Amino acid sequence: MAKKKEAYLSLSAMLRAREPKLLNAERAGRMLEASSFEEAAKLLTDCGYPDLSQATAGQIEQTLTQRRVQALDELEKLCPERAIVDFFRIKYDAHNAKVLLKAEAMGTDASSLFSGAGRIAPEKLQEAWQEERLSELPKRFGEALLEARNTLARTANPQLSDFVLDRAMFEEMLDAARIADCPFLTGYARLLIDSCNLKSLVRTARMHKDADFLGEVLLPGGGVDRDRLLAAGEGEGFAALFAHSPLEKAAALGAEALEGGSMTAFERACDDGVNAYLRAAKLVSYGPETVAAYLAAVEGEITAVRMILTGRLSGIAPEAIRERLRDLYA
Q1: pLDDT by residue for the chain (330 residues), tens digit each?
Q2: Alpha-carbon distance 73 to 66, whole Å?
Q3: Topology of domain 82-179, per CATH?
Q4: N or C: which end of the chain has fewer CB within 10 A?
Q5: Domain limits of the chain?
Q6: Cα-atom radius of gyration of the chain, to the nearest Å?
Q7: Between the CA of residue 144 and those of 120, 131, 266, 304, what are the distances in Å?
Q8: pTM > 0.90: yes or no
């Protein structure tokens, strides 16, 4: 049974107090305008990061990985409903499954690519897979692993194998939202699915793939029904399906991308539409919404920090980085 909203009072207060330290647009702008990578990295200490001014790309990634794992581990202990934290761990299970299958197919050791942020420890996942003890894994996840391996063996197409795992990932995310009895989290999952489907529609059309391929890649469970997307056609047809939704602007830019418009602007608008939905949680004083929004905000911060620091370290022009940055929660 999902915990009552009142159980989140103290946790919500703690997270609200932390929100001002999250990376925001103003801090991100200062990092981009800094005279050097070193100066940009030092600005991150205001957000609670260690001094990364002398860090390599590998050390930056290690720091970001630790930040994610620490946030998930801490909130797993404090959150009244574990399913909320599991929701955010599920995608790392899917990531690890993709790594496992591709390493197996290529006969390589890819253990360094595993993430420790999932529900299932990477070593446990490997052992369960190699020793055929899939009953130890979540049922849908184990089934998807087998289906993805068979798909990869049959088609030699890792993209199609990934789609199998992505479908299972979103199914489990929707299940976690239902277990948590959190409509906000369910809406977030559905919007993520809609965003993925919208990107698939545009990319498929630009690559001149047929309807059969589109049917393989579109995900069920979104706010816009998969069958309606299949029947909508291109451009104005699918754009109309997202009218009056957080993805309305993105869909319009997607239609423009089919006529030669910017894919970067379109994909950024998809992610910004999702982030706009998350910011609505700021209107909620306390409850599971604050936990979900905070974890999503940490993910957004990590993505932005990686983009800025690795970009500055590599000598990429600040404006080129800026045009790829997504809106931040803070």
Answers
A1: 456 888 999 999 999 999 999 999 999 999 999 999 999 999 999 999 999 999 999 999 999 999 999 999 999 999 999 999 999 999 999 999 999 999 999 999 888 899 999 999 999 999 999 898 988 999 899 999 999 999 999 999 898 899 999 999 999 999 999 999 999 999 999 999 999 999 999 999 888 888 888 888 899 999 999 888 988 766 667 888 999 999 999 999 999 999 999 999 999 999 999 999 999 999 899 999 999 999 999 999 999 999 999 999 999 999 999 999 999 987
A2: 10
A3: V-type ATP synthase subunit C fold (1.20.1690)
A4: N
A5: 82-179
A6: 20
A7: 15, 17, 30, 31
A8: yes
Map tokens 């006529």 to a residue.
259
